[in-house]
Amino acid sequence: MYSTMGIVLTGGNHNRLKELSLERAIAAVPIGGKYRIIDFILSNMVNSGITNVGVITQYNYRSLMDHLGSGKEWDLDRKNEGLFILPPYLSEFGTGWYKGTADSLYKNLTFLERSDEEYVVIGQGYTIYNMDYEPMLEYHIKTGADITIACRDMSDISCEDQKLLGMVEINEQNRIVDFMEKPLNPKSNIGSMGVYIMRRTFLIELLQESAAKGLTDFVYDVIVRQTDKLKLYAFMFNGYWRPLNNIQLYYRTNMELLNPKVRQELLMDRRKIFTKVKDEPPAKYNEEANVHNSIIADGCIIEGTVENSVLFRGVRVMKGVVIKNSLVMQGTTVEQDVQLNYCILDKGVTITEGKSLNGDAEWPLIVGKNVKV
Amino acid sequence: MARKEIVAMLLAGGQGSRLGVLTRNDAKPAILYGGKYRIIDFTLSNCINSGIDTVGVLTQYQPLRLNSHIGIGKPWDLDRVNGGVTILAPYMKTEKGEWYSGTADAVFQNIHYVDEMSAKYVIILSGDHIYKMDYSKMLDFHKKTNAHATISVINVPLEEASRYGLMNTNEDGSIYEFEEKPAQPKSTLASMGIYIFTWDVLREYLINDHQKSASHHDFGKNIIPEMLKDNKKLMAYNFEGYWRDVGTIEAFWESNMNLTERIPDFNLFDQYWKIFSPNPVYPAHFVGDTGTIEKSIIAEGCMIYGTVRRSVIFPGVTINADTVVEDSIVMSDSLIGSNTEIYCTIIGETSVIGNNVKCGIGEFAENAFNPKVYNSGINVIGSNTVIPNNTVLGKNVVIDNYVTPHDFDTNNIPSGGYLIKGGGK
After folding, report:
1. Which of A241, A267, A293 marks a domain boundary?
2. Does A112 touch chain B (CB under 8 A)?
């Protein structure tokens, strides 16, 4: 890919993923049996040939740093460039906390200035997709846009969830004529994927300008305010994409990975998704195992029934257990005769013998990290 | 360079000729085992788990796979500034180049490697066995007993003892005699081929041995008997636990099958003694609606739509619907078509088994190609091989690596049959 650097925004956070994001950044929430959410965007960047990646983070980033390490799993442990983790810092100019996305980028202006790539891709650490940014850059160069935003038809995301996205209106040339962030009544089905490409120097100018005016948010203050002034183009992507904005989307996305088509596109593509690996032995099924339509990670030992579920690494499913429609994260033990339906069990949970936990497809029951039930 | 107390010399040149087509293109230590590992991973993991961070790997036979597998030693934390893993292949010298003519010769030719590490002790290992062992305890024993050499031994059943190299010991554990495969065993302590030597002592013996043209340059046949003759102090170190030479097709198959037991003899799930290996980049495996798995080991990246019973399935394998795989080992990235039956078969990497194939059925018959190697009734299908649709294979059949559908002149190979390219053994 032609001279491009990457920035991943993982800073903004609330408790949108409930208990799952209490102790970790959303980007570090486990997904799909062995990944963390940030793996997808990092792999996208690396697979597109980007080798200079900054990860801007603020909220509970210990878990994220632990996961990213030196970046070697993504081949980002480089002598030159590689992976840069950019948490807030104290300086003589302020307390350091990022007040918004534009502010967080502005506070890392040095990183942008010191890099020498011509273009920059900005992406979000809470989104899941498998995409090559190269055609998008080519499109950006061809159209002569100020900023190119990756967009897609969001019809496969519920109206309710569309309200959490940035929705756009485009003309026949794919130029964005209106950008509505988190609209109450979306006027179109076209939504922003939160991926922006622009010239690095142009980004620096935009950031300096907004900082001078005391503006802090990239979408509200840079894009929405200047939709008329800037030449914004939509690059249409028609693959699978999910924002993990709330627990329902998170749960449903995991369940969608059971669909062979989705899994093929997202995980089995020649553009591989890289992640930090632990040395677990392959999963072991004993005689009583009865597993259907499920994703099972390494290190699991299964002696019970598992249906329509995702088991992360090192889960123990004992005899007589029935797990349905659930996510069970790493190192969790499900003791004999337990029944689980529509549950999300975080890491290191123990469900003791004979318990029965039932959630709802819309409101899965969440058991927090290291809890014993 | 900082002084290393102990350096490991890992002999990984074993051909493993009794593994037939499995070792035709790869050395035995590079053979896949247990759904994820290669045999050498066990010894390398033992090293790092025992605190040995300097390992010379002596390669000779078909080293390509081994070299790429070990790389710079990252999976075992053996990518070190000081020490780490070093591949020691035979090399040219000023006068001439020489292959390693024996285990002792391989170490002799790399004397300067051990010297450079200023090691006080050297441990000689082989990359051919499945076991977990804390070498640091053996080293403690070696130091405590002030031995010149310590040989790790394992108790074997008396009736099998004559298949091994046996150590006859005094009451204090010192060795007075070594017998290679004796007809009348005097003890049941078999040598595991693991030796700790005090380096100064071994160094001298290696140099002397090198000058004897009649010598086999072998630790068991030459070095140990010479040391015994000189009344050096040789101690037997008792090892208890699982230790297997998976050097025959039957032993290899049995050891893999045992892993599927509820409580296998060998525990891969030991959190305190992990077995390390390069991790392939695959998603977690998927079991489809039609998939059924019983008593099996399934690795990452697999897609299971058929029935799998008592089998070991390596990463990236796809097993399609209406297919049964039983008592079998399927190695990485192979594909098994639909409506196919596979019994008691070892399938190599990246092979394709077509639809409506029957494999491992009928009565046992002696293998017509090489009855010494293929004698257990287990079918062996090599790697990168394609078995066309509607093929029927009996029992005890062997199919070579890199076989294409054009190589089949019949779709029915009866028990004991074979398809070997070029016909060589």
Report:
1. A267
2. no
Instruction: Label residue A227 left, alpha or beta by phi (over 0 means left) and psi (-120 to 50 means alpha).
Output: alpha
Q: Which residues of A touch B260 (CB under 8 A)?
A: 284
Question: A247: domain CATH number?
Answer: 3.90.550.10
Residue A373 domain flag: no
In which domain, by residue range, is A15 found? 4-267
- Residue-wise pLDDT for B184-218, tens only, equals 999 999 999 999 999 999 999 999 999 998 999 99
At B207 the pLDDT is 95
Element holding A236 (H helix, E strand): strand A232-236
Q: Is A299 on the interface with B (CB under 8 A)?
A: yes
B142 three-state secondary structure: helix
- Secondary structure (3-state) at A140: helix
ipTM above 0.85, yes or no: yes
Residue ranges of chain A with per-residue pLDDT less than 70: 11-16, 93-95
When CB atoms are compared, the residue of B75, B284, B315 closest to A33 is B284
Cβ within 8 Å of residue A319, ≥6 positions away: A288, A303, A304, A336, A337
A297 shares a domain with A254: no
Q: Nearest C-alpha of chain B: how many angstroms from A340?
A: 19
Rounded CA-CA distance B61/B27 in Å is: 6
Asked if A213 and A321 sit in the same domain, the reply is no
Q: Is B274 on the interface with A (CB under 8 A)?
A: yes
Helix, strand, coil % in chain B, rounded to nearest 5: 25, 30, 50
Within-domain flag for A279? no
- A261 belongs to a structural domain: yes
Check whether residue A110 and residue A239 sit in a common domain: yes
What residues contact residue A191 under an 8 Å CB cut-off, 6+ apart?
A151, A152, A153, A154, A157, A162, A165, A166, A167, A168
- Picking from B284, B288, B296, the nearest residue to A293 by CB comes out as B288
Report how far Cα B288 is from the mean position of its chain's Cα atoms: 33
In terms of Cα–Cα distance, which of A246, A210, A224 is closest to A104? A210
Buried b (16+ CB within 10 A) or exposed e, A118-129: ebbbbbbbbbbb
Whether A165 and A250 share a structural domain: yes
Q: Is B386 exposed, middle or buried (0-12, 13-18, 19+ CB in 10 A)?
A: buried
CA A186 and chain centroid, separation: 23
Residue where a domain stops, chosen among A267, A298, A318 = A267
Distance between CA atoms of B62 and B53, rounded to whole angstroms?
25
Both A121 and A217 in one domain: the answer is yes
Q: What burial letters (b/e) apply to A138-158, b meaning 16+ CB within 10 Å?
A: ebbeebebbbbbbbbebeebe
B423 and chain A in contact, CB less than 8 A: no
Find how far residue A59's CA is from the centre of its chain. Answer: 15
Give every strand in the sheet of A290-292, ordered side by side. Answer: A290-292, A305-307, A322-324, A339-341, A356-358
A279·B287 Cβ contact <8 A: no
* B283 at A interface, C-beta within 8 A: yes
Give the Cα separation of A269 and B29 in Å (integer).
31
pTM over 0.80: yes
Provide the domain count of chain A: 2
Same domain, residue pair A247 and A301: no
- CB contacts of B276 in chain A (<8 Å) are 279
Predicted confidence (pLDDT) per residue in A44-79, tens digit: 999 999 999 999 988 778 888 999 999 999 999 988
Task: State whether A260 and A299 are in the same domain.
Answer: no
Nearest CA in chain B to A295: B286
A108 phi, psi to nearest 5 deg:
-110, 30
Token pair belonging to A146: 């100020």
Q: Kindly state whether residue A123 falls inside one of the protein's structural domains.
A: yes
Q: Please report, for the domain that includes residue A342, its CATH number.
A: 2.160.10.10
In DSSP notation, A353-364 reads TT-EEE--SSS-
Same domain? For A116 and A167 the reply is yes
